[in-house]
Amino acid sequence: MKYSILLLFSTILFTNTFAQSYDLKKPVTAAEVIYLQQTIHAIAESDQRYRKFISANTLDETVIDKMDAVYEADGIEAYMKYCASLNLQLEQSIKDSLWNLQHQIDLANHLALRGIFETYGFLPESMLPEKHYVQLIILLHPPKDWNIPNYLSDYSQLLQAEVEAGRMEAKTFATFYDNIKVKILREPQLYGTNQVFDVSTNSVQPPSIVSIEATNEAREELGLKPLKEGEYRLIAK
Questions:
Q1: I need a surface site. Which of 58, 217, 218, 229 has the fewest CB within 10 A?
Q2: What distance in Å separates the CA atoms of residue 142 and residue 154, rounded to the nearest whole number?
Q3: Secondary structure E strands in the chain
Q4: Residue 194 in contact with residue 207, Cβ under 8 Å?
Q5: pLDDT per residue over 170-221, tens digit each?
Q6: Sign of the C-alpha dihedral, residues 132, 123, 52, 80?
Q7: d(CA 105, CA 51)
């Protein structure tokens, strides 16, 4: 009996201490942390379930594993060169089918992640040491047919509040904003975080921006260091 009471007391003490170990919108229990970790891991897997085949232009997972190994060992430039050397292609009909399946997953992932943000906020790296990046990756894959300008405006308000609360790094928000601008809306980036891989030179080039004054003003407002000469390229007017 004495042992049982001591064990119960220890469990309560551990849970209360554990609940305060993350600066989220609400205290979390050990069970909630496990649930959040499992959810993010599941989202990470499903986000690449069909996207990896489309990106690699092959359905052969052994080839994809080799590509990933090159990236892990030698970086993005070596990865891009290796992928280009394979000269792989998938039929458009296969790509279309894969995209249809992936779009369904993307919607489910977004609804799950939005629920997490609304309830807990942007999850810290201490909770997700290996999958922290997944939150940003999902944000860069908005569901098909969503209004992207509205999506960017809505999430900018939500995520800037997370930056102000200290739960999200300013650089992460800037990366989200610039990628949506450049890669989906096809508009100039603002913060200068989006580098470009130049196929002609097989190298990563500095980000292209419209105005260094406007970019550095926006970076300062977000708490980022200004870009210096050589860290950006100006878009020709």
A1: 229
A2: 12
A3: 196-198, 203-205, 208-209, 233-234
A4: yes
A5: 999 999 999 999 999 999 999 999 988 777 777 788 899 999 999 999 999 9
A6: negative
A7: 10
